[in-house]
Write a structure and sequence with these properties.
This protein has three helices and no strands. By secondary structure, it is mainly alpha-helical. Helix 1 crosses helix 2. The relative contact order is 0.14.
Length: 84
C-alpha cells in the first residue's frame, strides 16, 4: 500500500531554480541520480535536524513535534540514503 499524499505547490521561477539546484547538489553528494521529490525530502530532514541540533525551539510542543517528525521520517526512510 502506498501511503503517499500528493502535495501541490505554487513556486516562483526562482524557487524552482532552487529546487533544481538542490536536486543537482544532493545527487552530487550521493553520487547517484536523485528525483526532485527525494531532494526536497532530504532538505526537510536536514531542516528538522538543524532545528533539533542547532536551534532552541522555544515552544515545548513544537520542539516535540519537530523531533517526532524527524524520527518518523528517518524510521520509514523510503528515499534510500538521500540525505544531507
Amino acid at each position: 500500500m502506498d501511503s503517499r499524499t500528493e502535495l501541490r505547490l505554487r513556486l516562483t521561477p526562482q524557487e524552482l531554480a532552487g529546487i533544481a539546484a538542490l536536486t543537482a547538489g544532493v545527487a552530487g553528494v550521493n553520487e547517484s541520480e536523485v528525483s526532485q521529490e527525494d531532494a526536497v525530502v532530504a532538505a526537510i530532514e536536514f531542516a528538522l535536524t538543524r532545528l533539533i541540533d542547532d536551534y532552541e525551539v522555544p515552544d515545548p510542543s513544537a520542539r516535540e513535534q519537530v523531533q517526532l517528525a524527524r524520527d518518523q521520517l528517518r524510521a520509514g526512510w523510503v528515499r534510500g540514503n538521500c540525505s544531507l
